[in-house]
Amino acid sequence: MLSGFNYAAPRTRGELLDLLAAEGQGAKLLAGGTDLLVNMRSGAVKPRLVIDVKRVEGFSGIEWSAKDGLVMKASTTINDLLRDREVRERFPLLAACAHDLASYQVRNRATVVGNVVNASPCSDMAPALLCLGARARISSKTGTREVPFKEFFTGVKRTVLKADELLELIIVPAEEGGARGSYRKLKRINGHDLGIVGVAMMKKGGLMRIAVSSAAPTPVLVDGLNETSTPEAAVAAVRKAISPISDLRCSKEYREHMVEVFVRRLLEELK
Ligand SMILES: Cc1cc2nc3c(=O)[nH]c(=O)nc-3n(C[C@H](O)[C@H](O)[C@H](O)COP(=O)(O)OP(=O)(O)OC[C@H]3O[C@@H](n4cnc5c(N)ncnc54)[C@H](O)[C@@H]3O)c2cc1C
């Protein structure tokens, strides 16, 4: 059952940051609500104030420029991303991960920002953002900072964000445009489902990055590989980086095995 809460729908960035500064721990930002409302209904989260980001001027859409790269805003939905031509042409890995997230209906509401702030180990967007060297622009009433996604996740459902901070933009550097990439996600069913494991791979200019979801407390980036790395070296680096557990969805051993299978398949696919 939902506990009582107040609701605010600010129209400007300034109003939103004022509200966040005044309420601190008592406030929760609402984007698509596909995580927040589930958590509020279960009683896991009981905000005094829910602040809707969707009506803030300038908070929706995607922008691309050769100078700033790809910029996704606080209300950019997963389907906005999939509809964007620059994303499909320049960042196929982002589109591949977005396409595997939930169902069309959920993707119409769910935002990229909400997905990473929720910080589930099985986030589908995190592997692409990690592989592509993306950064989070974080704002509060007192200023703005940028954090690379490889430093953003601090634990299961935990991030570097403080109570009065907003994740305002996600920025993918322009130089990652044109990178080849693909994503493999293991699910219990053929339809939409949370991942049992997910592996993303990106290759560009001799460099290779791999990121894995659902195999550690946070999504994991495996750096330091290159296009000439052997499958054995890639598998060994990935195994070293992950720390899967057994849970009701599958065993630790099955997760380890499937991560290796996916790494080998992705290496073949992106040869
Ligand atoms: C049926 C179903 C299936 C799903 N399947 C998948 C799946 O396959 N893969 C997957 O990865 N996820 C899945 N999800 C989870 C969810 O859809 C995603 O995590 C989604 O992207 C969250 O975005 P949202 O806009 O709905 O976030 P919200 O629920 O609005 O917010 C999520 C969290 O982020 C905070 N927040 C929102 N905006 C900001 C901001 N600008 N700054 C700081 N904090 C902010 C909120 O306070 C909240 O804590 C599924 C959910 C459902 C209900």
What's the topology here?
Blueprint: E1 6-8, H1 13-23, E2 27-30, H2 36-42, E3 49-52, E4 62-65, E5 69-73, H3 78-83, H4 85-90, H5 92-99, H6 104-109, H7 112-118, H8 125-131, E6 135-140, E7 143-148, E8 153-155, E9 158-159, E10 166-172, E11 180-186, E12 197-204, E13 207-213, E14 220-226, H9 231-241, H10 252-269
Parallel strand pairs: 1-3, 2-3
Antiparallel strand pairs: 4-5, 5-10, 6-7, 6-10, 8-9, 11-12, 12-13, 13-14
Helix pairs in contact: 5-8, 9-10
The structure holds flavin-adenine dinucleotide (FAD).
Bound molecules: flavin-adenine dinucleotide
Rg calculated over all Cα atoms = 18 Å
Helix count, DSSP H or I runs of 4 or more residues: 10
| CATH class descriptor name of the largest domain | Alpha Beta
Structural category is alpha+beta
Query: Helical proportion?
Result: 25-40%
Low-confidence stretches: none
Please describe what this structure looks like.
- Strands 4-5-10-6-7 form a five-stranded antiparallel β-sheet. It has a four-stranded antiparallel β-sheet with strand order 11-12-13-14, with helices on both faces. The protein has a three-stranded parallel β-sheet with strand order 1-3-2, with helices on one face.
- The model has no long low-confidence stretch (mean pLDDT about 95).
- α5 (about 90-100) packs antiparallel against α8 (about 125-130) and α9 (about 230-240) packs antiparallel against α10.
- The chain is of the alpha+beta class.
- It has helices at about 15-25, 35-40, 80-85, 85-90, 90-100, 105-110, 110-120, 125-130, 230-240, 250-270; strands at about 5-10, 25-30, 50, 60-65, 70-75, 135-140, 145-150, 155, 160, 165-170, 180-185, 195-205, 205-215, 220-225.
- β6 and β7 form a beta hairpin.
- The radius of gyration is 18 Å and the shape is globular.
- The chain folds into three domains: about 5-50, Uridine Diphospho-n-acetylenolpyruvylglucosamine Reductase, domain 2 (2-Layer Sandwich), CATH 3.30.43; about 60-175, Uridine Diphospho-n-acetylenolpyruvylglucosamine Reductase, domain 3 (2-Layer Sandwich), CATH 3.30.465.10; about 180-270, CO dehydrogenase flavoprotein, C-terminal domain (Enolase-like, domain 1, 2-Layer Sandwich), CATH 3.30.390.
- The structure holds flavin-adenine dinucleotide.
- The site of flavin-adenine dinucleotide has 30 residues, from β2, α2, α6, α7 and β10.
